[in-house]
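Input.
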Amino acid sequence: MIVHIQNPYENLKTEDIAKKIIGQRMFMNWPFLQEGQVVAVSDSLFKYEMMVVTPGTPARVISNPHAPQGLGHWKMKSERIEQYYSKRCGVITGNVDILLHVRPLKGLKRLESGAFVKDYEGPNKEVEQAVQMCLSEVISEDPRYLEREAPPLSEEFPDGSKIFFLGEHAYGVAAQVSATTNTTLSVILAFFPSELAENEKFKAVVNNRQQSRYYPSFKAAEQVGITGRALGKITSSFMVITSDNQKTNLGLSLKFEAKALKVIDYSRKEGRNWDYSQKAVDLLKEYKARNLSFLLPVFVADTGLVGNVP
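Output.
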């Protein structure tokens, strides 16, 4: 069976389609429909986008010509879509003369008011689809992605429910809901004065610490005289089994990758890489001097983790 698609936009100009569709949601990739938001419309010569030309004036559709290399690129995309439906799906789309630039629906995001609104992907995940293979509405939408107003506080936080308090005072402590109104929430905090004193001491340590130079992990490993892999083992949890079958942690626990935790003045994480301070390097040198003879067989067994010994 071959399916022939009738293009409802066949007799419309590209600019008119752009004015009608840009900013609207569409369901693309028929027959496996996925919701998205149209951000641009293009044909073989121009790309139409909604822009503000003069500050303070409403946005309007602006046409921008394709770059010289973009002309062939656009034609390849349109032919690829037409061939995909023809060869793989048994669907005759007709000529693909207009493409919609669509950002797929990512999910729902919650506003500060508590309402749930649709959240679409960014420009890096934008896709193109033939206009005749998109629908403006469907009979049955996925109920998981329907926008909705904020639920009443009494429904979302019933009396007696346990929560975590994120207010300015006692941030992060456990709490219990005692009462609700239309706009406010009353809670009972599980908070002890000793915890406040402990937090203040911790803040003082953070604020009064001296600035220290940090080295990337490979530089720190060079200074200590071990490989980067050995450094990673030593600075985290390094479990070994002793002769009496007991597990012992021989690591320094200067970083906790899984929990995304660091040790102040010793380690920090920049992006995906760990850095170590001079204090950490000195500690590693002392660790190596005291434990090298004991740890050498362990490191060698683990594919040669030890570097040259100075």
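Helices lie at 14-21, 68-88, 153-156, 193-208, 217-224, 228-235, 278-301.
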